[in-house]
Design brief:
This protein is an alpha/beta fold. It is built from 14 helices and 16 strands. The strands form four sheets. Strands 11, 12, 13, 14, 15 and 16 form a six-stranded mixed beta sheet that branches. It has a four-stranded antiparallel beta sheet with strand order 1-2-3-4, with helices on one face. Strands 6-5-9-10 form a four-stranded parallel beta sheet, with helices on both faces. It is globular. It starts with a strand and ends in a 9-residue tail after the last helix.
Amino acid sequence: MKRKVILSSLAVAAMALAACSDNEVANSGGEVQATAEEKIVIDQAGTEVTIPAEVNSIVSGGILPYFHTWYVATNSTKEIVGMHPNSYNAAENSILAKMSPDILKADTSFVQNGEMNVEELMKINPDVFFELATDEKSIEQARKAGINTVAIKAIDAAAAEPLATFNSWLELTGEIASTTDRADQFIEVGTAVQNEINEKIAGLTKEQKPNALMMYQLSEQAITVSGKNFFGNQWLNATGANDVAEEEVTGRKDVNMEQIYNWNPEIIYLTNFTEIQPEDLYNNTIPGQDWSEVEAVKNKQVYKIPLGIYRWFPPSGDAPLMLKWLANNNQPELFDYDMKAEIKSYYKDFYGFDVTDKEVERILHPSSDAAKY
């Protein structure tokens, strides 16, 4: 009989939202137990999952940002043997492909027509499969096939707080991979940055804050904005801006140009979930849409959100940098962060990686090729 020992207590307060999920509340916690060959973890859906004590291969499914969480926690991507095609697209267009090129070896064949194919996943045969907790169908299929499946939940709808969300992923990953120091380091850096920003914006009135809009997706077919209980709202509130959509939009919502004219935002942020660039609005190139009279366009204050180790709009390891970048744009009279220097310093200190000037430019001005989602 195998002798069981208690390794540690896992209390993962999952406040997590994936870029592709809304309005999920994650509450998880429990004991982590083990034998010499395996241990039991409590995933973010509250399910006990038995996994190998040493995890050497993982697959990341519909929880799109998760793959880079593994890197932040472990400083390695060689264990990532499979990932969602849309995650792969973000990875190959990110600095992570340079930092840890093993990520480009990941198999994407287990996702076909947007759905998980359990037969293909079984061929990959990972030690652990990470899936979005709301994708109950994929989770059930994987577990019935004998694949150790860990559910990652997506959001605390009341907060949608990116720092806490990413930290909850790091904590769980640290328990699985036996690397627990990175979560503490990340939250310490992020909290320090937020406190620094809070001190300067604390006395601002609503009138002293710009009216800003987070454009989640934009195309000829749809204008999708981010509002209350989604990450964009939290980013704006945390960096000295008013979210023009928060009173009328919860989560994500398609709107028309008439609504954009009514809001008339002074600043527009474009995520990496759209191919559209600021120049497309400045030059009015989107058929059927006239952006020429919108304040942000007239004043050339449309910004493409950067893409570093991952997209900066969802929770990411670069969240402290996102806060500084937004603060610069929203309150230029209060903040003057040298983002090139900030990126170089953060990547050196936190990731142990020296970023070149060219790579910094690529982070700050991501290609439209990274927009697949």
